Amino acid sequence: MTLRGLGRGISIGKRCFSSFTEVEKPPMDGKPINLFSAINQALHIALETDPRAYVFGEDVGFGGVFRCTTGLADRFGRNRVFNTPLCEQGIAGFAIGLAAMGNRAIAEIQFADYIYPAFDQIVNEAAKFRYRSGNQFNCGGLTIRSPYGAVGHGGHYHSQSPEAFFCHVPGLKVVIPRSPRQAKGLLLACIRDSNPVVFFEPKWLYRLAVEEVPEHDYMLPLSQAEVIRQGSDITLVGWGAQLSVLEHACDEVAKDGISCELIDLRTLIPWDKETVEASVRKTGRLLVSHEAPVTGGFGAEISASIAERCFLRLEAPVARICGLDTPFPLVYEPFYMPTKNKVLDAIKATVNY
Amino acid sequence: MSAFSAVKILPSPPITARSTPKPSFPFVFSSPSSPTAGGIHRPAAAPLSSSPRPLRAVSSHVLSNEQRVASHSHQDEAEVTREEALDLYEDMVLGRSFEDMCAQMYYRGKMFGFVHLYNGQEAVSTGFIRLLQPGDSVVSTYRDHVHALSKGVPARAVMAELFGRTTGCCRGQGGSMHMFSAPHNLIGGFAFIGEGIPVATGVAFSSRYRHEVLEEASPSGGLDVTVAFFGDGTCNNGQFFECLNMAQLWKLPIVFVVENNLWAIGMSHLRATSDPVIWKKGPAFGMPGVHVDGMDVLKVRAVAKEAIERARRGEGPTLVECETYRFRGHSLADPDELRNPDEKAHYAARDPILALKKHIIEHDLANESDLKGIEKKIDDVIEDAVEFADASPLPPRSQLLENVFADPKGFGIGPDGKYRCEDPKFTEGTAQV
């Protein structure tokens, strides 16, 4: 069973998976690899299957600071896999130009904290290219990948989660995987999607997350959330590395008899409102959790949308367990983060509302 | 290239030129009095600048079609007194020992995060910063421990900051990459490359404004100078060029110092830059550009003196490219596999501390035991710094919420007058922050 071609991803969305370190019934076999290896495989396949795909960014030539691009330069040549100078704005604009000419530009921004100089190009050019040229040109071939999120010791500028800024831009897609298997399928789908995509990779999981990942080419659907765990008392929504925190919280409250439904949003915009709504209609309670600061984070959008759609069904206010409204701190990072205990407190408070 | 520029773009010097120490290039200066400067429209001289003086390190040619490399005047090197030489030596040894201790502490788990060490580049920091007056400012990058030390921030404060303690220079908030010190006019530590350069430009503007508009005299007798340090990779970033333009346009008292160590993590400067000769980018914007051997503290000091005094007199910015090298990897997490061992060996042979030591001994400025005495003193300073940092307390939890805004009550302190993080509801996620 092989899957080729655009647009036909496997729908493993509705199956039940437990945590990514133990897969109960894998539909596909694969070797256990970690996140950066899965990303690496996806990039190898992307470049193999499309002769006009390019990977570039700072230090990608030797494999990148997180080893995601290992072996690409040797295999596909320096014409297709190359280092850029240190200019994020230039990298993004250059990628948009490449994409506008029909190429698949896979740009790497070394840390999501450094994406802000590129923000102008991404928001003002990439997102609006098709719209303002009346569909004469588009930069659908553009994929920007960037490691994001806390890593334990990153401090102010190696730990940020800027996804909310991009979610506010019509014309862009924002995708965040939670595990190696998801990452490979989602990244291939993003690269082949005909819209510009910003793909954030949770850097904490690069080495820590290990999962069995099939070696062949496969894609996962965008804009489809995945229900990882069925439950009946409360719906938990998250993405990226935060899901493992949510999972541990689920396991703990299960001992108290609270049954949680856990949803991985996967694509932040355009997000799968139907799946989340269906779940909240079942449970009546919602908790959203992300690492980015709570005010103006993407949890606010989910909360507002669900409140609109499920107002009468909700038994308790939508809870948001997120980072604090401070710059990402150096010391006391655990205190800033939406930890398992904070999630537990909120689950109990919401269920007992 | 602008049609007004009188600089001819020369072919880049051969790459092999790096393998032998070469004399410094002279200042490349487009002087209004030069007959060959034709076509450049020069803005009116700022009130403070005197008529352009010949600079000591220049061989008197200005822009012309043939740019000749003049040999560096050797008499500069001997013109340093015993006190100055020992001060330079002590500062460089302090920088080196401190960084070595950082590495030890890191591998023992006492400090964490991303730490970038300065070993090998001490001549640049010492050569420039020891010439500065207290009112002058320094803006640095993430490789800023030694800049902080040279500027006068006590080793204790820097070490404590690295350990994340309250007694650190930023109270433990910033860590390795964000050293700030108001009393010493150290305006940061920037993790993000290039971000410090516009900040430095603003600081320089403020200095000029204070002097000329507000007419506040500075103890230095001229303008307070700002020195911005950054690397070769940064010279490909837009912010760098924007600031060269602004600084020259407004004749700001700033010196742009490029610490060209040839590598930006794993990217070789020569492979990332269309014209790797960075000092030439200065004249493109109308300011002097100069190249100096950054492994020789006396040469750096001579060039720095010129550049700083120019700025102080109000003659505007200078771009100084220092050819230097970092002996360790980019950061303590960098395995440093990409650089050629021959290249490393070449620069290790040009260790600035050993070079200065040799110079001091040869010119009879001090003897071995004086230098040993200095090294011992520095060892004690470093040990004391580590003990101090170890014994210092970690910040209180309330510090997490402080200083987000100016008004602590607006954020960090709740309506009951206590810090919000001390609210028992805090972990519930339902406490408003």
Automatic annotation (TrEMBL), chain A:
Q: Where in the cell is it found?
A: Mitochondrion matrix
Q: Name one GO molecular function term.
A: branched-chain 2-oxo acid dehydrogenase activity
Which coenzyme or cofactor does it need? thiamine diphosphate
One Gene Ontology term from the biological process aspect of the record? response to nutrient
How is this protein annotated for GO cellular component? mitochondrial matrix
Which Pfam families does the UniProt record give? Answer: Transket_pyr, Transketolase_C
Catalytic activity from the UniProt record: N(6)-[(R)-lipoyl]-L-lysyl-[protein] + 3-methyl-2-oxobutanoate + H(+) = N(6)-[(R)-S(8)-2-methylpropanoyldihydrolipoyl]-L-lysyl-[protein] + CO2
> Which residue ranges run through the membrane?
none
**Per UniProt, which keywords does this protein have?**
Mitochondrion, Oxidoreductase, Transit peptide
Q: What is its main location?
A: mitochondrion
* EC numbers, comma separated: 1.2.4.4
SUPFAM superfamilies (alphabetical)? Thiamin diphosphate-binding fold (THDP-binding), TK C-terminal domain-like
Residue limits of the Transketolase-like pyrimidine-binding domain?
33-208
Q: How does it assemble?
A: Heterotetramer of alpha and beta chains.
Q: What is this protein called?
A: 3-methyl-2-oxobutanoate dehydrogenase (2-methylpropanoyl-transferring)
Automatic annotation (TrEMBL), chain B:
The GO biological-process annotations, alphabetized, read as: pyruvate decarboxylation to acetyl-CoA
Cofactor(s) needed, names only, are: thiamine diphosphate
Q: Which residues form the Dehydrogenase E1 component domain?
A: 91-395
Annotated GO molecular function terms are: pyruvate dehydrogenase (acetyl-transferring) activity
Q: What is this protein called?
A: Pyruvate dehydrogenase E1 component subunit alpha
What this protein catalyses is: N(6)-[(R)-lipoyl]-L-lysyl-[protein] + pyruvate + H(+) = N(6)-[(R)-S(8)-acetyldihydrolipoyl]-L-lysyl-[protein] + CO2
* EC assignment: 1.2.4.1
Annotated region described as Disordered, given as residue ranges: 32-53
**Superkingdom assignment:** Eukaryota
Gene expressing this chain: LOC103697388
**What is this protein's function?**
The pyruvate dehydrogenase complex catalyzes the overall conversion of pyruvate to acetyl-CoA and CO(2). It contains multiple copies of three enzymatic components: pyruvate dehydrogenase (E1), dihydrolipoamide acetyltransferase (E2) and lipoamide dehydrogenase (E3).
Keywords tagged on the record: Oxidoreductase, Pyruvate, Thiamine pyrophosphate
Give the originating organism: Phoenix dactylifera (Date palm)
For bias type Low complexity, the affected ranges are 42-53
- Can you state the subunit structure given in the record? Tetramer of 2 alpha and 2 beta subunits.
